[in-house]
Structure formats: C-alpha cells, structure tokens
Amino acid sequence: MSTASGAGTSTVHFVRHGEVHNPNRVLYGRLPGFGLSELGHRMAQGIAEHFALRAEAGRPVHHLVSSPLQRAQETIAPLAERLELPVSIEPRVIEAENRFEGMSDIRSHLRDPRIWPWLRNPLRPSWGEPYAAQASRMLAAAKDLSDNAVAEHGDGAEVVVVSHQLPIWVTRLWAEERPLAHDPRRRECSLTSITSLHIGPDGVEALSYEEPNQELLRDAVALPGA
Q1: What EC number(s) does the entry state (predicted)?
Q2: pLDDT tens digits, residue range 200-217?
Q3: Which terminus of the chain, N or C, has less C-beta within 10 A?
Q4: Residue 60 DSSP label
C-alpha cells in the first residue's frame, strides 16, 4: 500500500449508497433521477445511527462527503442531519462511466454486433472507465480528504464518503494489492456497506469492512449499475 498522505493518521470511510428505486432494472450509472427506494431510505437511517453511536463512543466524524449523484446524496442526508454537519460534493467519487448506461436486460444487447467492440478487453474494461482510472481518482480524493481532515482536526480525524460499488471495490483491490480485473459477482461491497481506509503518514496502512445494515440486505433487490 502506498499513496502517501500528510502527517497524522485518519480514517476515510467509503460507504456504498442504499437501495435504489429502479423497477425497470435499468443500468443507471450516472443518469439523473434515480433516488433511493423505501428500503434504501431505511438503510440511510441505519448508517446515520451507526456513525452516531460511534460518535457517542468517542469516534466522531469530522467531514461528510458525497458523490454528486442523487442516490448518494439521499444516503448521506440522514447522517448529516443527525451529526449536524454539512455535506461536501466530491466529483471524484462518482460512479464509473459505462457504455451500457441506460440499458436494461443487458444480456439481450450482447447479441448486437455493434457493441462487440466494447467487449474486446474485459480486463480494462473496454466498455467503460478503466479500473485503474477509477482507483486513481478515488485514492486522490481520499488523500486530499485525509490531509484536510488531519489539518483541521488533528490525528485520528474521520471522514465519511458516500460513493458507489465499483469505484469502492477497485479501490479496495488496489489497497490489498490484488489485480483490479475481477468477477463482478464476487465483489464484497453490499448496499450501505463501509469500506474504511486507515491512512497514515506513508499512505494507506490498513483496510476494514463492515455491513451495519446486514439485516436489511435480505430484502434488497439486486440492481444493475448500483
């Protein structure tokens, strides 16, 4: 692990957003207008409760950050209200670009020869933003957020960032020094899960993962583009 940070230690918690209302099962990617479902709002409340309890136990959150997309902002809103903190919008933690965005029933489209060039290199991947580019922008954002939090609040500062599954997952793969190419079915990054980067003066020193809303996951719909 590398990507050196400033002096002091911090934790940047990457939270995946809650379940999205998507009855047509569209791969929504960066499209506007996709907000949380009723279950997703309950998940957002669960995340607010989780971090509020940590604050009461002496582990306060100092900065709140969100992807520009609606589902991320709706996920962090209850936490912002609970902690009485403002939310900063960070474009670098947005969902990955994807040429299949806006489509549903992706398998049926795979029979169209016009899109076959998109599939020429699944290791990059050729149908969207390269995995390496996603990890790079997420890590750059994490470094800046860490440096700012430590500068303002000192050693042990904590930041919560609501982002999206794929960028969070490839950032974890990088931190664990694993190949970025992967099977999407094997991602460990459930709805409103928390992937935490523990950052020291020399960069990312450790990583942890937890699922505060595990009891709600059994009722969630597996949606594309989440």
Answers
A1: 3.1.3.-
A2: 998 999 999 999 999 999
A3: N
A4: -
d(CA 51, CA 29): 27
Residue 107 has pLDDT above 90, yes or no: no
Q: Where are the beta strands (DSSP E) in the chain?
A: 10-16, 63-66, 87-89, 157-163, 194-200, 203-210
Closest to 9 (Cα-Cα) out of 207, 142, 203: 203
226 touches 165 (CB < 8 A): yes
Pairing state of beta strands 203-210 and 157-163? unpaired
Q: Taking a C-beta distance cutoff of 8 angstroms, is the pair 150, 7 a contact?
A: yes
Domain containing 82 equals 10-217
| Percent residues over pLDDT 70 in the chain | 95
What gap in Å lies between CA 64 and CA 68, rounded to an integer?
A: 13
Contact partners, residue 110, CB within 8 Å, separation at least 6 = 119
Q: Could you tell me the pTM of the whole model?
A: 0.93
Q: Would 25 be classed as within a structural domain?
A: yes
Report strand pairing: 63-66 vs 203-210.
Answer: unpaired
Q: Which of 3-7, 32-36, 69-73 is predicted with the least confidence, judged by mean pLDDT?
A: 3-7
Asked if residue 225 has pLDDT above 80, the reply is no
In terms of phi and psi (left: phi > 0; alpha: psi -120 to 50; beta: otherwise), the region of 161 is: beta
Cα distance between residue 63 and residue 159, in whole Å: 5
Residue 91: C-alpha distances to residues 40, 175, 176 (Å): 22, 21, 24
Output the domain CATH number for residue 51.
3.40.50.1240
